């Protein structure tokens, strides 16, 4: 990715190594050459993590949990990021940690966990899986169809690896070989903030069969939500809880707001939902409480 003022500022802020460096697998559903995923990759690597990117060769948004072994491709990858007739799986010629898989988001995550990353890590598998940041939000009903969420749920449910799905409010796309956009840089910083808070909380990073569904608000240059320090982090639930058991008690109530409600009514708020990787709905209060204790120092209440 070409240098830019946003990239330089962000990487400088992330250059200090974190206390705990992890093996992190990164995927998405927008494709391996999308700007958001590359900006987040830069920040995680600058923080000292060993990161392997394993994403679809093309934009595979809305594919949910589809999983089919990759087949050789005939056309170039998205943004001409790989040549025609490149096979079923490939990598950057100078960066073997940047990989594409000619299939769905879940498949790219599966291959990353089982095949690609272990080759680079002497047989080891990831400590954590992060997906996104997606171009556009994944809220409520959209969660069931999101490839970004589907990939995170595969990691947490089938592979038993803690996972976080990140999505951003801006829908614009940005090729990997253009200057980093403002929103990509801010999404990356916010995603790293949450990732490091989870890591610093210690093992197990998340409860069994749990993923986090994180939605970041739209970032607008010159507006009230233009940098990472502008946002508030709100603990939410994915689906409405009218007939659900009570949530964890937080902010004076035992019913968390939905992520959709927060994004419709609370300016510059990042919603963090504790999701059940088995069915992509909200988990029980007991597992919510575990995550609440891990994230509490960064969370706010809706005033």
Automatic annotation (TrEMBL):
InterPro entries on file: SurE, SurE-like_Pase/nucleotidase, SurE-like_sf
Alphabetical keyword list: Hydrolase, Metal-binding, Signal
GO molecular function, one term: nucleotidase activity
Signal peptide: 1-21
SUPFAM superfamilies documented for this protein: SurE-like
Keyword Ligase (UniProt): no
Domain of life: Eukaryota
Domain Survival protein SurE-like phosphatase/nucleotidase: 24-219
Protein name: Survival protein SurE-like phosphatase/nucleotidase domain-containing protein
Protein species of origin: Conoideocrella luteorostrata
Native organism taxonomy: Eukaryota, Fungi, Dikarya, Ascomycota, Pezizomycotina
